[in-house]
Amino acid sequence: MDHPATLDALLASLRNRLQEAGVEAAGLEARLLLGMATGLSTAQLIARGGDAPGPTQAAAAEALCRRRLQGEPIAHILGRRGFRTLDLGVSPACLIPRPETEVLVEAALGVIDAAPEEHPRVLDAGTGSGAIILALKAERPAIDGFASDTSLDALTRARANARELDLDVRFFAGAWLQPLAASARFDLIVSNPPYIAADDPHLQRGDLRFEPRDALVAAQTGLADLHELIATAPDHLTDDGWLLLEHGFDQDAAVRARLETGPWTDVTTWPDTAGHPRVTGARLRARR
């Protein structure tokens, strides 16, 4: 097989193939794939665009492009994904961080900024790659950060991200709040739990096909884990502590209804950039 004569031509070939396959950000992804195949930055690819790619480079670019054309997420191919200010390592063991989850981070930052404590204790339940708690720790260094996950592979990835970013977070192995000591209390608990119904057709499309099903799907039409967190969080919150939950765009009413029948006040929902309800939270009533 003849390879394009220059890096610019190889880049154009990759971009065209991705565009024909319906990849939305074909130009960006082509640059990322070629950068990975050649070890060159975007600036270097531009400066050296007239250079001929080596056979190894061309073969590597072809292999990476084939993986993307087969539907593998670009984040898994690169092993990285940007999230807010962070460059995170990702793997098939955990969800790929998404822009929608930034709504949860923004809501959490508001709670942290309003907290009277100098060092609010924040728990990310079901942390996956660590994206949420690491973003919060990076942007509000004064918090005491904690995180849990039932997947040991996900925890390995989250701990590696914390080390790479030099962020101090304590991790616990176990489902949701179960690995915590009975006396553990937090000023804020955040979570992006599984909330997709098992029969949702989106599970057979796009990146979701390659992500861990147990991090996506929950029983009770996607509400089971949300309900569990609402039921168990009061035992691990301080007086006036907050629980913030990411959920599906059509689940806000169910989440609000569950919170409004419990020991909660100030039930609030935050929309995503498309205007869909994305995060709902509430403050625990002070114990008498």
Short description:
The chain is α/β, with parallel strands linked by helices and 288 residues long.
Average pLDDT figure: 95
Overall structural class, as computed from helix and strand content, comes to: alpha/beta
In one word, what is the shape? Answer: elongated
- Strand fraction band? 15-25%
Please report the number of helical segments. 11
Radius of gyration: 21 Å
* Number of E strands: 9
Biggest pleated-sheet summary: 7 strands, mixed
User: Assembly type of the shown chains?
Assistant: single chain
How much helical structure, as a percent, in the residues? 25-40%
Helix and strand run: HHHHHEEHEHEHEEHHEHEE
N-to-C terminal Cα separation, in Å? 76 Å
Q: Which strand order spans the largest sheet, edge to edge or round the barrel?
A: 5-4-3-6-7-9-8
Give the low-pLDDT segments.
Answer: none
Walk me through what this model shows.
By secondary structure, the chain is an alpha/beta fold. It contains 11 helices and 9 strands. Strands 5-4-3-6-7-9-8 form a 7-stranded mixed beta sheet, sandwiched between helices. A two-stranded antiparallel sheet has the order 1-2. The radius of gyration is 21 Å and the shape is elongated. The mean pLDDT is 95.
Record keyword descriptors for this entry.
alpha/beta; 7-stranded mixed sheet; 9 strands; two-stranded antiparallel sheet; 288 residues
